[in-house]
Design goal:
Two copies of one chain form a homodimer. The longest helix of chain A is centred in the middle third of the chain and has 22 residues. Chain A has 408 residues and is an alpha/beta fold. The first copy, chain A, has two domains: 234 residues, Alkaline Phosphatase, subunit A, CATH 3.40.720.10; 152 residues, no CATH class. The radius of gyration of chain A is 23 Å and the shape is globular. The model of chain A has no long low-confidence stretch (mean pLDDT 96). Chain A is built from 14 helices and 14 strands. An eight-stranded mixed sheet of chain A has the order 10-9-11-1-12-13-2-14, with helices on both faces. In chain A, strands 4, 5, 6, 7 and 8 form a five-stranded antiparallel sheet that branches. Chains A and B meet through β3 and α3 of A and β13, α14 and β14 of B. β3 of chain A pairs parallel with β14 of chain B, so a sheet runs across the interface. Chains A, B: One of its GO terms (biological process) is glycolytic process. Chains A, B: Its EC number is 5.4.2.12. Chains A, B: Monomer. Chains A, B: Keywords: Glycolysis, Isomerase.
């Protein structure tokens, strides 16, 4: 009796001339799900609170983001594959090009992406050899991106970025943002790492090769967004259920890993509009065999919203509609299917907003309503009225009679 | 990109023979706003919790009243113009007539309004000269009303009223309501004030004049509703936004001052049904030029509800509808207009109830719904479904893209 939770990132919108990509898209399968299920609108965090994809996914999995979210760093680090632990301090990082004399902090950023370097695997290996008073974990992300984690006693995330976030500026020294020993110690370690990383990178054969080819050297790692990994109970411990997250996006994979889920990225799943939707849908159907809760994340709608691409978002929704057709054949006497979004990414705003998302829950036992179209203009008329993200999974588990009674 | 929040006090009702003043009033402009906007119902505090106008206005401004409300005293004191500070203990007070021998506590209340005395300004001046172990602040309210504030170390609001709340009863001695030194100290100071105030008033020339004219002496000040002013972050500090409150009612002006708003009472604004609505609407339109959030409070609907005057409430709603016509010409690509109430004051109950209030949010970017009439019987069919007072401003700030993202 599994739950399939399909989260279409940034799916919903604000109207432009009364229309949204979702409302005008041809989407017979999504509409059929609306017709079969019980519909409503949902504030993934709370009304008027603009969700990140990380905070909203935590909430959708039943984790209060106000309690369990401490910034993007730890989630990105988990997303790229670092086995992050409570107390670790994680940073997002990018390989950059710096120039000038003296220490790393005397040098000027020439390019924040090191000439859009693609393969940093050799550089990452070299960085891992750096010796620090605490344990160091480094992992590459896509392109010039990376994650850096410091592990040891008495560290704190109350420290500043070393990334000046602009070219032509000097690399910033990490400073404590709190008047305590932990923050001071962490800042010192970060600065030691910054200098040692620069030395390792500057002298790395790959960078000599790049220089010879006229490419920019990836000779510094700039850090930002320190976050301390909180104590997050695993989904299994919390609910007794096996969770699988199917995603290609590091941030969502990170949320999955932080809560102890198995994370699957099917072949060809990319997190953009050319992703292999068939493979993702197939992976989801397979996962329903061996997991209690399967979260299927679809990213491109959000990107197309950030791009302000109305037609592109509409077209991708139509493609998605086509590709999810096999899900309509699931046995809804056993499976509970939920279709929703993590937040709105309106074309007009090009960023996340708090406009509530449509949600439909399909299962044989739901109280079906009169909604027969999946859109921002119909969902609120449904039998769920307006719910919150933190409540969604509880509603599904209740439907499946997995929920426990509170009281007698 | 400002928010205009129009709060029509006690606007909504319970039906009598299926009708409410709002549902039967002729109100083309209010209905037009409903048609242009997204509608819903709102529990200003929580479902089933009967709001005061003070607690509900705190909630509508985003302040949790369970955290920031400590009784009517401090808010009334702020409302009449006392610059109240955290830790101050404030009382509502009324000038009264007492008779008998001995101390103030041996005397009997003859009239709780001192013959409906109008001008107490000379008496207030004299009271301010009283010497106490702590600082004393006194300010007149309307008619026989006043506010009294004690300021100093170690005071508490856990003390009883001195107002016996009935004629023919003796003035009550203030007693501590908690077994601690602060409450004991405060009660002693209150009792010292009661006696000294009585002496000052009894011998005041104005009271000798009143006696000569056969009027009742205003020879005592009765205190009730002790409240300690809590630490309330200013609206500006909390949100970064400039708030203006347009109101004539002391309680609402007090809420405004407590949160650090600029408070405007336009010429002719009275807080009753003869108030100058044109002036209030004009002041609101002007305020939108220089503030981020403008709260326009309209009081008379509540009074007419307390009076159980169905026809009077209906007639005032029709007048209000006419006078707000200029607001329909606001530029809703910039301004977000919210029309709602702080609570219901049903004709049949003659007091506040928790029946949810209708709310409409008008802005170019809202997801318009099919509601085209502003009433208790239509609002719930709208796209907002059912929200809470604390969420309202967040929803508006999200619409105006002022909201910050929580997460990544």
């Amino acid at each position: 009796m599994p739950v399939l939770l399909i989260v279409v990132d940034g799916l919903s919108d604000r109207p432009i001339d009364g229309k949204t990509p979702l409302s005008v898209a041809r989407k017979p399968n999504l509409d059929r799900l609306a017709e079969m299920g019980i519909n409503g609108i949902m504030d993934t965090i709370a009304p008027g609170i603009r969700p990140g994809s990380d905070t909203s996914h935590l909430a959708l999995l039943g984790y209060d983001p106000y309690k369990y979210y401490s910034g993007r760093g730890p989630i990105e680090a988990a997303g790229v594959g670092i086995e992050i632990k409570p107390g670790d301090v994680a940073f997002r990082a990018n390989f950059a090009t710096v120039e000038g004399e003296g220490s790393i902090f005397d040098k000027t950023v020439v390019d924040r992406r090191a000439g859009r370097i693609e393969d940093t695997s050799e550089l990452i290996k070299a960085l891992r050899e750096i010796e620090l008073p605490v344990e160091l974990l480094v992992e590459r992300g896509t392109g010039h991106r990376a994650a850096v984690v410091f592990r040891g006693e008495g560290l704190s995330d109350r420290v500043s970025d070393t990334d000046p976030k602009a070219v032509g500026k000097k690399v910033k020294r990490c400073v404590p943002l709190a008047d305590d020993a932990k923050a001071k110690k962490t800042a010192e370690i970060v600065n030691e790492f910054m200098q040692k990383a620069h030395e390792v990178l500057e002298n790395h054969p790959l960078n000599r090769e790049r220089a010879e080819k006229g490419l920019l050297k990836a000779n510094a790692l700039l850090l930002r967004g320190a976050g301390e990994m909180p104590h997050v109970p695993s989904f299994k411990d919390k609910t007794g259920l096996r969770l699988c997250v199917i995603a290609a996006t590091a941030l969502i994979k990170g949320v999955g890993r932080v809560v102890g889920a198995d994370v699957i990225t099917p072949e060809g799943a990319t997190g953009n509009k050319n992703t292999n939707l068939e493979a993702k849908v197939k992976a989801a159907i397979n996962a329903l065999e061996s997991y209690d809760v399967v979260l299927l994340h679809i990213k491109a709608t959000d990107e197309l919203g950030h791009d302000g691409d109305f037609e592109g978002k509409k077209a991708f929704i139509e493609k998605l509609d086509e590709k999810i057709a096999p899900l309509l054949d699931l046995d809804f006497s056993k499976t509970c299917l939920i279709l929703t979004a993590d937040h709105s990414t309106p074309i007009k705003v090009k960023d996340h907003t708090a406009d509530p998302v449509p949600v439909v829950i399909v299962h044989e036992d739901v109280r079906r309503d009169e909604v027969s179209s999946f859109s921002e203009f119909e969902a609120y008329k449904g039998g769920l009225c307006r719910i919150r993200g933190m409540d969604l999974l509880n509603i599904a588990l209740d439907l499946l009679n997995i929920a426990k009674k509170f009281g007698a």
